[in-house]
């Protein structure tokens, strides 16, 4: 049976991750991206935004 043009193929459903698996995957990706795990860079950026909006 031929597919019609413009009709996307059905994708297989990805298996659901447990909360622990999802958390570990998130942490691994953050490490690969070099994200600051202490939160200090987030706090510094957040303080800059707050100062600008309070003017």
Structural class: mainly alpha
Overall pLDDT: 83
Query: How many strands, what sense, and barrel or not for the largest sheet?
Result: none
General form: elongated
Low-confidence stretches: none
- Summarize the helix and strand pattern as letters: HH
Q: Residue share in helices?
A: 40-55%
Strand segment count:
0
Estimated radius of gyration: 21 Å
Number of helix segments?
2
End-to-end CA span: 65 Å
Description:
It is a single chain. With 55 residues, this protein is mostly helical. It has two helices and no strands. It has helices at residues 19-32, 40-53.
Key attributes of the depicted protein:
mainly alpha; 2 helices; 0% strand; elongated
Structure in a nutshell:
The protein is mainly alpha-helical and 55 residues long. The chain contains 2 helices and no strands.
Write the layout of secondary structure elements.
Layout: H1 19-32, H2 40-53
